[in-house]
Every structure is written in structure tokens, then in C-alpha cells.
């Protein structure tokens, strides 16, 4: 039996569980085996993280995915969790502070993604110093 027909029948019967039919190599039944599927990497709100990776010079993106700057400094709270992130804007006009609760870490792309638009980030006041 060709694997596509077999997998199709299994899927129709609801016997594949969490493994989609597309996760199998085409071939015959004797040689078919599941492919390794990359696990989805969820984004984690930065302020909830305890093991923060090194984020110096990491790109910060706005909510619409536009790069807006790079990390310059992270200020932690009393519990060692990130509280504020200083971001140098891409146009080098100023450094702004973004509350860590407004940022999520995307491990797959090693970026921080803000819940703010590019316009909102650019409108933040410049950090002193």
C-alpha cells in the first residue's frame, strides 16, 4: 500500500493523533517513518523570565515586526527579573526605556518584540544620560 493512501486513511479515521499526514515521508509502508518536526518556539514576556539570555545589541522590533532599535541595557527588579529595557533607536537619535512587560523574547529569531507600534516607541521620551 502506498504511504499516502495509508496515511490518508489513518488521518480520516482519526488515528494519527497530533502527527499530521504531512509529517510522514512518502514511500511504502515498510519504509515510512515520521519526520522530525521543529517545535514551535513561543515568545515569552520578558518581565516574566528568570533566565534571561544575553541580550546586548539584540534587535528590538515593533508590534508590526519593524526593527526599531537595539538593546543597550536591561534594568532588573529586586527579584532579578527584567523591569526596563533601554533601547537605542535605529536612527541613533535617542535611547528610550521600554517596560519589560511590553516586550516578548522570540528565541527563534533572537529578538525582542514590543507590544507597541514603531510610532509609539519613537514617541517615548529620551533617557537621560
Question: Your description of this structure?
Answer:
Helix content is 12%, strand content 28%. It has 129 residues and is an alpha+beta fold. The chain folds into two domains: 1-37, no CATH class; 44-122, Photosynthetic Reaction Center, Chain H, domain 2 (Alpha-Beta Complex). It has a seven-stranded mixed beta sheet with strand order 1-6-7-2-3-4-5. Strand 4 (82-89) and strand 5 (95-99) form a beta hairpin. The longest helix has 10 residues, at 3-12. The protein is globular. The termini are far apart. Residues 16-40 have low confidence and may be disordered.
Tell me briefly what this model is.
The chain is of the alpha+beta class. The protein is 12% helix and 28% strand.
Tell me the name of the CATH class of the largest domain: Alpha Beta
| Radius of gyration computed on alpha carbons | 22 Å
For the biggest sheet, the summary is:
7 strands, mixed
In whole angstroms, the N-to-C terminal distance is 71 Å
CATH topology of the largest domain: Photosynthetic Reaction Center, Chain H, domain 2
What is the tally of beta strands?
7
How many individual domains? 2
Q: Characterize the overall form.
A: globular
Please state the second-level CATH architecture of the largest domain. Answer: Alpha-Beta Complex
Given helix and strand content, the structural type is alpha+beta
Estimate percent helicity. 10-25%
Mean pLDDT: 74
List the strand order in the largest sheet: 1-6-7-2-3-4-5
Q: Which percent band covers the strand fraction?
A: 25-35%
What is the tally of helical segments?
2
What series of H and E elements makes up the topology? HEEEEEEEH
CATH superfamily of the largest domain: Photosynthetic Reaction Center, subunit H, domain 2
Amino acid at each position: 500500500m502506498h504511504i499516502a493512501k495509508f496515511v490518508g486513511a489513518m488521518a480520516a479515521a482519526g488515528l494519527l493523533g497530533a502527527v499530521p499526514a504531512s509529517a510522514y515521508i512518502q514511500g511504502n509502508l515498510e519504509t515510512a517513518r515520521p519526520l522530525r518536526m521543529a517545535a514551535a518556539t513561543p515568545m515569552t514576556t520578558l518581565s516574566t523570565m528568570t533566565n534571561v539570555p544575553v541580550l546586548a545589541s539584540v534587535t528590538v522590533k515593533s508590534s508590526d515586526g519593524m526593527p526599531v532599535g537595539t538593546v543597550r541595557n536591561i534594568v532588573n527588579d529586586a527579584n532579578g527579573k527584567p523591569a526596563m529595557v533601554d533601547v537605542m533607536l535605529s536612527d541613533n537619535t535617542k535611547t528610550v526605556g521600554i517596560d519589560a512587560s511590553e516586550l516578548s523574547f522570540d528565541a527563534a529569531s533572537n529578538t525582542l518584540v514590543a507590544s507597541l507600534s514603531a510610532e509609539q516607541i519613537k514617541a517615548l521620551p529620551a533617557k537621560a544620560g
